[in-house]
Amino acid sequence: MTYLERLLEGVKVEWEPLGESCKVVRGKRLTKKELSENGKFPVFHGGLIPLGLYDKYNRKANQTMIINTGSIGEVVWSGVDFWSSDGTFVVETNETINDKFLYYFLKTQEQYLKTQKREGGVPTIDRIVVEKLQIPIPPLSVQKEIVRILDTFTELTAELTAELTAELTARKQQYNYYINELFRFNEGEFEWKTLGEIGAFQRGKRFVRNDIIPEGIPCIHYGEMYTHYGVWANESKSFLSEELVENKRLRFAEKCDVVIVAAGETVEDIGMGTAWLGKENVVIHDACFLYRSPLNPKYVAYFTRSNIFHDQIKKHISSGKISAINAKGLSSAVIPVPSPEEQKRIVSILDKFDTLTTSISEGLPKEIALRQKHYEYYRDMLLSFPKNNLKS
User: Fold this and answer.
1) Relative to the CA of 226, which of 121, 137, 158, 379 has its CA 20 to 30 Å away?
2) Whole-number Å distance between alpha carbons of 273 and 292
3) Using CA atoms, how far apart are residues 107 and 67, in angstroms rounded to an integer?
4) Which helix H or strand E contains 41, and what residues bound it?
5) pLDDT tens string 167-189
């Protein structure tokens, strides 16, 4: 016997359209000009996150909203007094329904509500759809017990998510700290040379995302440098046809070259490098450079992720809709040149931190998602009432 079955033992659960026991009230429009940074009350309009603040409220705390524009079908709870705009329906309950119980139940109906949006003009949900939604009404004592359990689950899930997020942030900070510290050498300890003195830069040639195919010649699109590639890679995410590569005479990075991204939306985006260690050569995009030198490629790639490097290239980055840097700007950056053995030692230390941070970066979001699914499973189970008393 499940916990819900024990709760409902000897109890009759009525079902009825939401509109019979609740009042569905549309909010009142506010323009963005009316919002205030000094306002006290959140304004809900088209999503889970408040649109802004206002100095008045039109709804008391502890009420449920259903979004009817923007993130249509999302169910939102406000634990404080708030302003409900015309992009939301507020559900007012009567004495037979616990407000938080209704919120938790409606969260299980979000997917259904999202399928009910009316297209044409401005997409929305009609009030009648919400009012016809069947809701269970167990005794208030059962509703309150379910709320108690789910409130506890919600709090524990939020605490765990915060802890995991803090752990990821701390590991990233530690990783960045060591990248910067390991490139801080005492004056005269090692020779410093410009990247242009030691090696050479060559820009890639243009291809577009539509050129990318599932199999073929390995390639790196500049956008993937921000979303996919780390300090090193030996396999590409994307591929191009041999015909396209030959016709456009695209350029390749070879094994032990460093691919450096040279364009992005912000100054901070520019200059990250990835050591290419693949057996096959890889085509690079025209918003990237390959850097070829006798230096350890991973040593160079780590250096491009240090503050020492970025502080040097900032003044050479042109800013606009897209920020960019040319080969001359990259070539001017100076880099410490220790022995190959010392380069290898530094790479070995940073590899350990990179592996740890990468595993956490990949593992924690999965763990957070798993915990959320775990919570949703128990929520849905607690709110799965027998439907033998449905009202038409």
Assistant:
1) 158
2) 12
3) 12
4) strand 41-44
5) 888 888 888 888 888 888 766 67
